[in-house]
Predict the structure.
Amino acid sequence: MVKVVEDKRNEFFGRQELKIIVDAEQNPSFEESTKIVASHTKKDESLIAIKGVKGKFGRRTFLIKTYVYDSQEDKDKVEPKKEAKEESTEEKKEEVPAEKPVEGVEVKEEIKTEALKVEAKKE
């Protein structure tokens, strides 16, 4: 069962914004949600961006928030690129400078590990 709760048209971004309630045994994955929305809207799966799938404990209904774009160009302008995010996180990990010892000061190993833990939490 598919029930449309909200259907808005956003001309600025060239998309249709939908909130759909789906009845399912398990929480549908993003790929399954894309197929459900594509079959309901009769649009190509590449034009659909799933923003969230939420369910409540004990219920078999799930709310799917999605954007259905008019064209691939509209989607490319608005939606973030997955590859770009992955590359940027890898670059950040590589850019972390190595710890430089200060001359004349001896630091115990326990203090070094605690300082590294604190720095990791900040990032």
Notes: Helices lie at 30-41, 72-78, 82-94, 109-122.
